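ingest -> validate -> predict -> emit
validate: passed (alphabet ok, no gaps, 305 aa)
predict: started
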Amino acid sequence: MRLIRHTIACIILSTLTTGCFTGIESTPKITASDVKKENIVITPEQTFLTDIKGEPFSKWTSGKRLFVTDNRISQLLVTPIDEPLQGKYISFVDANTVRSITGAPIIELRFNTPQGTTVAYRTDATMGDLEKRHEIDVPFTIEESVIKEVSSRLKGKTYYTTTSIWYDSTGNSFKGRKFVPVTVTDVKPGNTVYPILLEMSDEKGDPFRLYMSVGSDLKAPRGFNNLFAFADPRLKYPTITDATWANIINGKVARDMTRDECRLSLGSPAQVDRRPGYSYLYEIWTYENGIYLVFEDGLLKEFRR
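emit:
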């Protein structure tokens, strides 16, 4: 047993540092993308909400509202303004053709602020160009129509969360639980990175928040498919015991959990190192946050959280 533990310690050190001679030859290291290779299947969660986007300019009418996510928008406006706009709505007034500094005709969009000040944002396009675009990007803003559409589809619905990164009412993240039923209680404007803020409650009635992306980018880091599942994930794993599933929900691991169970709990590792031992096949998973797991013939035997 002492020899086995010494071997494990040296393997871990050789993985995390420069090396440790054990007389055991290692196989090449593989990255997280190599941990689980399978045919890519587009799930219903991935395509849900991908059709939601800003309105084309041809549908913009007077009074259309945009939520401002950052006061830096004032640096992009033609009209100087001291009024803080972050967290407020500005209303579209009209669009006019003006001349750029090079003399080229471009469109200027005018908006009214909550205090009634008219401000202008100059695009880089002509009216013909704008009308060809599927949507218009006004920096540091979120179209109210997007928020309303997401709300109409999600508010009051219950899903299963697949992320343990939850947020409190002040915007600070904390460790939540995965694979538990949660209900969307409200949909609000998010921030510059994630335009949707979801107010949630778990099965115990405790409130929390999630930030979400919407649109056609299936690789968005916090799209619907990164946050939720339509069906109870527990049903996919009938052989996992209740005790192990409780660990997975809370992001924990325990001795003799399988690699798949550990992956469900902690996610895929940043690096995997596989080495033959004296009587076992060792596999060491390392994560970017310093966590490592050591498997013997596919079962977890040592770990550091």
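Residues 16-28 have pLDDT under 50 and may be disordered.
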